[in-house]
Specification:
The complex is a heterodimer of chains A (about 100) and B (about 140).
Chain A: E1 2-6, E2 9-13, E3 16-18, H1 20-34, E4 41-45, E5 49-52, H2 54-69, E6 73-77, H3 81-90, E7 97-98
Parallel strand pairs in A: 2-4, 3-5, 4-6, 6-7
Antiparallel strand pairs in A: 1-2
Helix pairs in contact in A: 1-2
Chain B: E1 5-12, H1 16-29, H2 36-58, E2 64-71, E3 76-83, H3 91-94, H4 111-118, E4 121-126, E5 132-139
Antiparallel strand pairs in B: 1-2, 2-3, 3-5, 4-5
Helix pairs in contact in B: 1-2, 2-4
Classes of the chains: A alpha/beta (about 100), B alpha+beta (about 140).
């Protein structure tokens, strides 16, 4: 996963497949990066993500909770129709900004 | 009704096989020329069922997961994902959106909801201590 830092915003480029098998390493990398208290906003760029199942919901909502606990925000950008379908089904669109 | 083609996969309950199973079933379904959207739905539903077998059926133990798929003359793909794991005590509860026995592991509890949304039919047979079979079907083309 690649990251880009713009002041208080961290952009994480989540590529490839996000399933139960890959979720633990994605979660670990993201948590390591957002442990910096200077990060107030996490943007998950999923435009190069080729597959996601409900394990991805857990990863995104988990990071949302972690950021919200310290007053931060999470946004998701670049969803393909398949990812968007899962996103809407889970109701994440009600709490997470989409770009 | 006899299928026009069928397949059976058997693999160890390790997470690396989640991708293998969904790609294999998707490749099998391609012969009826479904749309890319339909293939994505099938891959996702298979991924959910196989993940459930690995995570909830077997848990810390290892066992075999069996995936069967059949193409029916009606243009329907039938899939069965079976494990010989711990079984489900309360199937109705397990199928409720957001229900999970592992919230600490950030399991979303949306697996069955995804299967039900992405497929045309989902059924679950399970006996506590006696394993689980998830049966799903998806129409790949209009009936001839």
């Amino acid at each position: 996963m690649e990251f880009e830092r713009k002041k208080g915003t961290l952009i994480a480029y989540v590529t490839g497949e996000l399933d139960h098998c890959s979720a633990a390493s994605v979660r670990r990398e993201l948590d390591q990066m957002i442990s910096d208290p200077g990060i107030r906003r996490l943007v998950l760029d999923v435009s190069e993500m080729t597959f996601m199942d409900s394990s991805g919901i857990g990863v995104i909502l988990g990071r949302y909770r972690a950021m919200a606990q310290r007053g931060g925000r999470v946004a998701v950008r670049g969803m393909n129709p398949h990812v968007e379908k899962i996103f809407l089904l889970s109701g994440m669109n009600q709490v997470i900004e989409t770009i | 009704m006899e299928p026009i083609n069928q397949m059976k996969l058997e693999f160890l309950s390790v997470p690396e096989n989640e991708g293998f199973a969904r790609v294999a079933v998707s490749a099998f379904a391609v012969q009826l020329n479904p749309t890319l959207d339909v293939l994505a739905d099938i891959k996702t539903a298979v991924s959910e069922a196989v993940t459930n077998a690995i995570v909830h059926g077997y848990g810390e133990k290892k066992g075999l997961v069996t995936v069967r798929a059949a193409l029916m003359p009606t243009g329907v793909l039938e899939i069965a994902v079976h494990d010989d794991g711990c079984g489900i005590k309360d199937i109705q509860q397990a199928m409720q959106p957001f229900f999970t026995t592992q919230p600490e592991k950030e399991r979303s509890g949306m697996g069955f909801s995804v299967m039900q949304t992405f497929m045309d039919g989902v059924g679950v047979e399970s006996v506590p201590g006696g394993g689980t079979t998830v049966r799903m079907r998806k129409r790949l083309r209009a009936e001839e």
